């Protein structure tokens, strides 16, 4: 009876990972733990994250010595670059490999230097070892081109994320930088081969590609076959061509497009008229456009629908007032982020331009980085009655007396405002409160990732 009570005590804490670890590790004599059958351990561990599971194994309890059994880790991701049965020269029985791969849903490759055996992967794919896999993440993907070509044959993959790095670092000399650039150019063949094979993965609903080199948008023809996609993120493509290949992705709900990448901006701008090919994508709720210069009402018009709830325009230089007019027709927007840096040729909007946004009565988060000059211009936005979070970026840090001049009109304009973030290139990070309003100050420069929610 005591043992049953103890087991039940552990089970009652499934909603609190820390409590599970603490409860389990508190049994100093291991009397109860040694009597827990495997299926009950499995029920406990299924509620733990990777880090929580590691902490549990490090508690030192003698009863936990069997937690290396694949039974207990089948719900966690598997590192292909760490699992020895994916490498030549390691003798594993098929039965043992199947035990490790049974019910495994996520495969990860992080190490570009890992010499994963293409032959072994091909055998496992062909004989159903990996049929349970639904998610694949591969970094330095050009190093694993042949392996990814085999994994692309898996029948049930729903989500694929591939990344490829190798751009010059800040501390490289000219010779090293030239070598790195040459290496990036040499990766193109492998990257183009990989994305062509992705076109065969017709079960995909989520695709995320991020390259540090720039691939021609003409290579995006593979997208025409991925008609089940609901999430698409592309970074590292020259989108001055190729956008038309997305026209048939009518199930898309999230679309994230970056013209070029952090390291390189293509010579030719995106022709905003090409965005008209996307007019049929009526289910998009989240839209992120980066590096799309000279946007006007034409470029934004395909997305003027009641479905868009989240819009990000990042480093989109020289946008026109007509762009704001189109955004103002996206009346279901919950968040709008116009992000530029001090290096961008950002458009400057006055109150006569910003007033187009007053129709966004459901907007809860707004970011305006380097797109207005006078804080007083924001007083025209009285239609944003639901706004709770406002993120602003200025060229210079704000002085205390200037802050007071900004806060008072903001509070009267946005009655539900609870958080104000103010960014500048050399700003110090600190926070303060003004009544119920939380104010955060921070620095922001090109390439920084910042929390806007």
TrEMBL record:
UniProt-listed InterPro entries: LRR_dom_sf, RLP23-like
Listed SUPFAM superfamilies: L domain-like
Keyword Transcription regulation: no
Keyword Chaperone: no
Compartments in which it is found: Membrane
Sorted UniProt keywords: Glycoprotein, Membrane, Signal, Transmembrane, Transmembrane helix
Entry superkingdom: Eukaryota
Gene3D superfamilies in the cross-refs: Ribonuclease Inhibitor
A GO term from the CC aspect: membrane
Name of the protein in its database record: F-box domain-containing protein
Originating organism: Skeletonema marinoi
